[in-house]
# Entry
Amino acid sequence: MPTRHRLLAILVAVLWGANFIAIHATLEHFPPFFSVALRWIPLALVAILFVPRPDVPWRWIVGYGLGFGTLQFVFLYWGMATGMPVGLASLVLQSSAPFTVVLGALLGEHLSGRRGLGVLVAMLGLAIVGSQRGDVSAAWPFVLTVLGGLGWAFGNLAARRAQTTQPLRLTMWMSVVPPVPMLALSLLVEGPSRIADSWATVGTGTGVLALAGLAYTALIATVIGSGIWSWLMARHPAGTVAPFSMLVPVTGLTAAWLALGERPTLVEWLGCAVVVVGVLLTASGRHTPSSAGRVAMATTSADVTDQERVNASATSSSRSLASRSAMVARAPSVP
# Structure
């Protein structure tokens, strides 16, 4: 992966890490399932009205929307609403990285020993940080957040399989999927009265902060962050890009420390440093495609060579025909 692409992946991790503070502000006012719907509704409307559909089959748009847009956030918001601390949530959600690597390997993507070691080192760093964040009152919020990581992994693979040349369009059209099921789930579980109450008090201090949080998650974290992420996933194996998500808790813990007073210990900072080392190991070196991939690349190369020959022949014929036409045009007319 080129250095510029690594820097973009790190930028996405920073944007997504700060996003947990925005989610916290949103959940302080709106119920969780309704919050997920509100996150996607504006983007879905913009996509339908103004953004052309990306050049990918519908199954990848729906798969990305269900995995990344729906499953990830319904479980994450649910977990945070039931007691998952902000900093710990930013850590546990990174279970998406090993999920993505394992699922990618099951689907035929090659995983080198160096990258496998990098994932293990990064997961060790996450374990070090998690060992210091043992204030979760129950296992349920933790399980919900892990399930959110699994949903993110499914979305990663759908984005990878889409192979789009229009990642921003894919991100926007992915947002069309979550609103309807999330509104239905919110009405069923949270009820119309709770939804109405949250709207009635939206002018309060917590309501304004919640709207600001929604704006950040929709525009910064989703359009910009997910757009860059989709672009990277379309150009590199999922196992190469996904481990960069393990940098998110570094930002998440720092943001929670600055905004909410959640102060990491020295051991937690050590764990964050181990995460960085693991990500660098995972991202370094060249990707070696599988034997099937090498055959496909060779076939593609041969096809391109044959096509170039055909194009050259066609161009030569076109020039010859044009030359003859010009000669005819310049010839004197016959009475």
Remarks:
- The chain has a mean pLDDT of 80.
- The chain has 15 helices and no strands.
- The CA atoms of residues 39 and 218 lie 6 Å apart.
